[in-house]
């Protein structure tokens, strides 16, 4: 803001920003990390908008990449990768669930699972 001398700049007071400090810092308490005297609300990751109250869809924007065994689930301010049906979380990835059926016939055991078919001798 311009000082009374008409030449010097003065910093905006607490809670104000913009030209002549005309804007209130009405930032979302959840979505904003601070209010800058020049540009206004500084949004946390995953949020956008003048007041940091609008969600960024990390799934459709490509900000979060999930593997082929996961689906992207957008949440307010974030997103996560969830295992698709038939897979469970193991560490950082998803692994196929094994529903096995074992049949014994003539000294051979057949093992059938959703992932593969194996003949065990």
UniProtKB/TrEMBL annotation:
Record-linked SMART domains: EGF_CA (SM00179)
SUPFAM superfamilies: EGF/Laminin (SSF57196)
Domain EGF-like: 55-95
GO molecular function, one term: calcium ion binding
Pfam families xref list: EGF_CA
Gene3D superfamilies, A to Z: Laminin (2.10.25.10), Tie2 ligand-binding domain superfamily (2.170.300.10)
Keywords: Disulfide bond, EGF-like domain, Repeat, Signal
Protein name, entry field: EGF-like domain-containing protein
